[in-house]
Amino acid sequence: QTLYVDNNKLAGRLPVGIGQMESLQHIHAQNNLLTGSIPNSIGQLSDLVDLRLSGNALTGEFPVEFIELSNLSTLLLDGNSIEGTLPREFGLLTSLTVLRLQKNSLFGSIPDLSELRNLEQLHLDGNAFSGAIPEKVGPQSLRELILARNELIGTIPDYIGHLTALKDLRLGVNRLQGTLPNMLGSLSDLRTLQAENNALTGPIPRTLGLLPLLEVVHLSHNRLTGTVPNELGEARMLEELRVEVNDLTGFMPSAVCTLNEKDEGLSVVTADCRGEAAKVNCSCCTQCF
């Protein structure tokens, strides 16, 4: 029922005959030297719950046969060179709780995964996904939504504000436009917000100050305007605030700088505060641009 061969130096291809091992429930073959494509016969493992092939050198197309694995809970394929698109039917694998496909060569649009009612982790960063973020990108059970370093366009959907279990939201290094939704202030469990290196405009939402557990805010390299909101000083757990290379003006609020005075408080503050051409007057910045 179980195959554990993590962290060895296994080389070569996954055997085509693996699909005949019908009782397999767990396959762990991470951090090896496996090459070639994932055999289509993997779709015959109807009892498979856990498939972990991260950190190999796998290539080929993303197997459409994965949609046959109705009991699959964990799928880890990150750190390979797998190509192709995610089939729309992937959204029918309602047992999935963890889906990590980061650092591959996947492309095309991200399918609607909102019907994956048990999904907690969705990591698609470091691929070549394009198009808009789906209006309903995931279910309300989602805790980690990592879509950074792709080619996504369009706006950040307001629907993300309804993902109230979200702890980690990373959308940086894409081509997103529009404003940061005020609905982000509804994510009371959010620890990390990263949306750097996009083309976002408008103000930093004052509602971010409503997030009591917020630790990291990276919004640099956008086209944000207005001032840094005083309300951010209410995010008492804040450790990093990066807002450089924007069109922000005015002063870094004293309420934010006060967080910098705590022993384990705000340790990284960056803004456009360098020299006579400084756009932001910042007395507590750890680095000026």
Automatic annotation (TrEMBL):
Question: Do you know which InterPro entries this protein is assigned to?
Answer: Leu-rich_rpt, Leu-rich_rpt_typical-subtyp, LRR_dom_sf, LRR_R13L4/SHOC2-like, PGIP
Query: Record keywords: Repeat included?
Result: yes
Listed name of the protein: Disease resistance R13L4/SHOC-2-like LRR domain-containing protein
Chief location: membrane
Question: What is one GO cellular-component annotation here?
Answer: plasma membrane
Which source organism does the UniProt entry give? Answer: Pseudictyota dubia
Keywords in alphabetical order = Cell membrane, Leucine-rich repeat, Membrane, Repeat
Q: Where in the cell is it found?
A: Cell membrane
Cite the PANTHER family for this sequence. OS06G0587000 PROTEIN, POLYGALACTURONASE INHIBITOR 1
Keyword field contains DNA repair: no
**Every Disease resistance R13L4/SHOC-2-like LRR domain range:** 12-197
